[in-house]
Amino acid sequence: MRLPSLRNSPSLEPSSLSQVTAKAVEELMREGESVNTLASYRSALRYWAAWFGVRYGQGITLPLPANAVLQFIVDHAQRTTADGLAHELPPAIDQALVDAGFKGKPGPMALNTLIHRIAVLSKAHQLRELKNPCQDPKVRELLAKTRRAYGKRGELPQKKDALTKDPLMAILDTCDDSLKGIRDRALLLFAWASGGRRRSEVTGATMKNLHRVGPSSFTYTLAYSKSNQTAADRPENVKPLEGIAGEALQAWLTASGIVDGAIFRQVRKGGHLGEPLSPAAVRDIVRERAKLAGLPEVFSAHSLRSGFVTEAAVQKVPLADTMAMTGHRSVASVVGYYRPSNDNPAAKLL
């Protein structure tokens, strides 16, 4: 079958992208990234621009020279000297970046933050098809040796403590019968009992994916997540919500009257519902409730995920069942959320 002639339609040049196509590619790339990833990219690039501006006295332009990346590393990474640990960022510039809101506090960066900032700069060069200074042999070697130096000093990344069953119950006891208390109890149990959901997965939960299977029991279909970014149809997408988790969710739906849209919303003065919660609100709820319970300030939103994995291990739940709830596809990934405790029987062999 012959295609009709489309003489009135402009022809494309296969060796280059039209402006319309380039914009469409950019929009698809942006939509395919998670909200949190895009936010972290923007934050990293803003910091690069601010640092470059005050360090070199000029606006940043890509591609950056490799020497600028080397300077960035030594400005933000600590090294051992005869006088102790040191880094090269001048105190006046450091304080200026803090005062302008680009840094949280003076001093060197956490190693993970430094590595992420360089990865984002590398991605920016790749997307623009520019010469990538982050792939320069000197930059790669310095970054590798910096990682090793931190490891030799025993400076491990700080992970939040696991919110296991006992501290979780203490936190739930702070949730009263107010609308906000009912919401927080339902949110915490939804996040924990469905496999330790991430912040964005909790605040992105909608009624259309919630299915009732009993008076106070539900299943929630998690179609999209960090471990399933292509929205593949998998059996483990369905998360059961039973027992006190199902009861708490039913209490919230009854009290709030929510029948469609986002499950978890803001509660304003007077008990009025507002917009859907932001991912940061999950962190704030965990921290505020932990403080009310008199617990140490060691818990955050990620503690829900590590807490679920750790508690499952303590209660000897088969690893395959745990992974079906968390959504992990590799054993190494799920084991990374386990936090050893003093109750580990392997520590009592003698």
TrEMBL record:
Coiled-coil features, chain-numbered ranges: none
Keyword DNA-binding: yes
Keywords: Chromosome partition, DNA integration, DNA recombination, DNA-binding
Signal peptide: none
CDD domains assigned: INT_Cre_C
Residue ranges of domain Tyr recombinase in the record: 158-350
Cited Gene3D superfamilies: 1.10.150.130, Intergrase catalytic core
UniProt GO BP: chromosome segregation; DNA integration; DNA recombination
Any one Gene Ontology molecular-function term assigned to this protein's record: DNA binding
Protein name, UniProt field: Integrase
Native organism: Acidovorax kalamii
